[in-house]
Amino acid sequence: xxxxxxSSTSTKKLKAGNFDVAYQNPDKAIKGGNLKVAYxxxxxxxxxxxxxxxxxxxxxxxxxPGGGQDGLFFTDSGFKFIKGGAADVALDKESKTATIxxxxxxxxxxxxxxxxxxxxxxxxxxxxxxxGSDRWTDSLANIVGLSDYHAGKAxxxxxxxxxxxxxxxxxKVQFKEMKPGMTQSGNGYFLETVAPYQYLKDVxxxxxxxxxxxxxxxxVTGPFKPENVVAGESIKYVxxxxxxxxxxxxxxITYEVVSTAKSVAALSSSKYxxxxxxxxxxxxxxxxxxxxKVLGQQAMAISLMYYNLGHYDAKNSINVQxxxxxxxxxxVRQAIGYARNVAEVANKFSNGLSxxxxxxxxxIFKQFTSSSVKGYEKQDLDKANKLLDExxxxxxxxxxxxxxxxxxxSLVYAAHVGDANAETIAQNYIQQWKKIGVKVSxxxxxxxxxxxxxxxxxTPPGANxxxxxxxxxxxxxxxxxxxxxxASAPYNFGHFNDSEITKDLNDIDSAKSENPTYRKAAFVKYxxxxxxxxxxxxxxxxxxxxxxxxxxxxxxxxxxxxDTWSEIGVSSAKLATK
Amino acid sequence: xxxxxIRRILLMIPQLFILSILVFFFAKLMPGDPxxxxxxxxxxxxxxxxxxxxxxxxxxxxEQYLRWLGNAIHGNLGMSYNLKEPVMTVIGHRAINTFWxxxxxxxxxxxxxxxxSIVAARNEGKWQDQLWLTYNSITFGxxxxxxxxxxxxxxxxxxxxxxxxxxxxPDAMGIIPVFFSKIYHMILPAFSLxxxxxxxxxxxxxxxxxxxxxxxxxxxxxxxxVKEKVIFRRHIxxxxxxxxxxNFGFVITGLLGGAIFAETIFxxxxxxxxxxxxxSGRDYSMITALILLNGFLGLLGxxxxxxxxxMVDPRIxxx
Lengths: 578, 319
Hints:
The complex is a heterodimer of chains A (578) and B (319). Chain A is 23% helix and 21% strand. Chain A has 578 residues and is α+β, with helices and mostly antiparallel strands. The two termini of chain A are 36 Å apart.
C-alpha cells in the first residue's frame, strides 16, 4: 500500500509497548524549515517512482513525502479504507465491482490532471510482461479479463472501465467474486496507486524502468515533489504546488541513505531529524541519545517455529502431510512449544523490542485478534512433561531422553544465521527441550547460512532431513494468512494440511466475513485452532522504533496518520542537541 | 615492441575466456538466486518460478553460459536482475564515481608516501626513520576500515568539516555547484585511502633508496666530488623509483578496481560497493561483468607496467 500519512488528535496518546507512537513536542513549529531524514541501508536506494516496477523497500519509504509512489487511499490505523484521500473506493456486492473516484482537484506535480487512465495504467505495468514487473500475483486474476491481458490473449483489460471516459475521474473494476479482505489496504485484489500515463506513454515498455521519467524526473501527487534525485543516495523534496490536500509546513526535506555502521554516530552528532529502518541491536546505543526522543510502533511481522510434517506436491500445488515423525502427534508438538522460554529470551536479548506472541496475528490488527487467545508465551515444563507422558513417551533415566517403542525422541533443528545472538538462542532452546527429555541437535551441527536455508525450505518438494525450524514474515496490511498456511501455500514450510484449518482460513475470506463481527470471530477461531493443533508455534511480536530529534513537531508513527508529511515541522532552524 | 604488445593483447582473449567460465560456474554454486529475495507472502511463488524460468535459471549452467557468451561477444553483458538496468549502464555510472575518487586518492598517496620514504631513508636509523617505520607498521597491521570509521567520526561527525556519505549533496543543483560538491564529498574517503595506504610505496621506495645509496656508481660520483644533493636527485632517486614504476600499470588500471571497504563504509556508490551488493543479491550478470572487468584490468595493468618499465629503464626491452 502506498498511502500518505497523518495525525488526528485521538491517536496521539497511542502506546506501543513502552514507547509513545507520536511525539508531543511542547514547542511550536517555525515557518518553513528544512527537515533532514535518513533511511538506514547498506545498499544504495533504487529510485523507481512507479509502484508496479519498484521492488526496493528503502525507496518505498523514501518516496513517502512525494506520495509514496502515488498511493490513492486513506486508511485508519488498522489499515481499513476510509474516505478523504486522493480517491475513494466504493465496493458493491451485487454487481461485484469496486468504483474508484478520484478527487476532482487531484493533479500531477506538473499541474496536469490525474485521470482514470492513470489508474488503469498501473495494471498495465504489472500485468503486461513487456514491462518486466515482478509484482503480478494470482489475486489480481480475480479482476475480469486481467489474466487474459497478462497472458497476452487480450489487448485491453475488459474488467476495468471508465464510466466518464479515459480522461474522467471514475474507474469501475469488475471482479469475478467479492472478498471480505477488499475493505483493507494491501489486499492485493485491486491496486491502490496511479501512474502518469500521458507523461510515460511514449517510453517503450522495456525502457520504462530505467527511464529518467520514472527514476530522476518523476511526476508525483503527494505534498512534496522531488527537486533533485541523486541515484542511489538521496532525494531533495520541495512542496508540490499542485497538491490537493493540506499545504506542507516545511520548505524542504532531504532524505538520504545512511549505512548501518554510521547511523548511531550520525545521530549523536545531530545530523538527522530521524532515521528509519534502524535494527533492534542498535537500540541500546540509541535509547539515551541527547536531543532525541525514541518513538515506537508495532511491527507488521510475526516470527514462529515450524515443524516438518510432509512435502509439497508442486505438480498439484498442494501440501501433503505424510512424513513419518513423532511430530505428527499433537501432544509432542505442543510439548515442544511449551518447553521454550520465549519470554526469557525476549527479555534478555531484545532490549524490550520483542514480546512473546500469543497468536499468529500481531496486536496491531486489533479488529482481527484478541488478547484472550492463549498460546505458548509462558514456559510450562510440567505441562510439556505431562503431554509427553500421556502420549507414551517414557523417560530413559540412563540417557535422560524419552523413548517410545524403543525409539528415542530425537529431532533436528534447522536454525539459521541471524543476528549476533542467533546461536546462543538456538542452543538455549536445545537446553530447554533437554529438560523435557527431547533430544534436539542443530542441522549439521551448526546454524544454516541464510540463503541455503531459504533454498532448503522453499524448494519443492521440501527436504526430509530437518524437524524444527524458525521463520519470520512481514505481513501485509490485509492479515488473512491463506498465503502462509493454506493447503496449497508453498511457503507453508512444514507442509501441514488440515481440513479444519483450511475451513477456518476459507471462513475468514468467505462472503459471511463481509460482516466485520463475523470476520473477527472467524479470525479468533483460526488463531485458537492453530495454537491447539500447533503445526506452527508463534514466537514473537516485535516493535520497530524511530529516534526523532526534539526539534521535530508533529511526528507520529501511527499507521492511520495520513497527513504526516504536511503536518510535520521543526521548532528551530538547527537540530536539538540536548 | 608493438608486435609484443599486440600479441599480449591477443593472449588476453583466451585468459578472459577461461576466467569467464570459472566465474560463471562458481557464481551458480552460491546458494540462492536473484529471485530468492522476492519470496514472501505478498509475492506469488508461481510468479517467482515464472521469472526464474524466463531468466533461464533452470537451464544447465553451460547452456546459460553459451547464451551469455553469445550476447557478450556482441557487447551486451545483459540486464542486472536486481537493478533492472543494463549492466553496462550501471557499471558506467559507478565507474565514473570510482575513477575520480581513486585518482584523487592515488595522487594523495604518492604525495604522502614519497616524501615520507625520502625522509626515512635519508635519516636511516634515526628518529625520523623510526617514526615513519612505526607509522607504516601500524597502518599496515590494523585493518584500514577501523581507521576509516575513526576518520569519519573525527572529521565528519565531531568536527563537521566534511560530508560523511554519498557522492554529492542533494542540495547541489547546476554544473558548478555539483562539481564542487562532488570534490568535497570525495576528499574524506580519498584522504583516508591515501593516509592509510602508504605502506606499499614506502617500503619499496625506502629500501630502494637505501640499496642505491651503497651502489658503486654513487661511490664513484662522490669520489668525483659531485654534490650530495645532485647525487641524490639525479642518480639515487631515479634508480630507486624503478620498483615503483614497475607497479604503475596496476595503479592506473586499479583506478577502476573499486575500494570495497572504503566505498562501503563511506557510503560512496562506486564499483566496490556495487560488487558487494551484487554478490549478496546474487545478481549473476553483474557479478560476472565486474569480475571480468577486474580480470581484464589486471592483465592490462601487467602489460602497462611492462611498457612503462621499458620506457624508464633503458636496460629493459620488451621482446
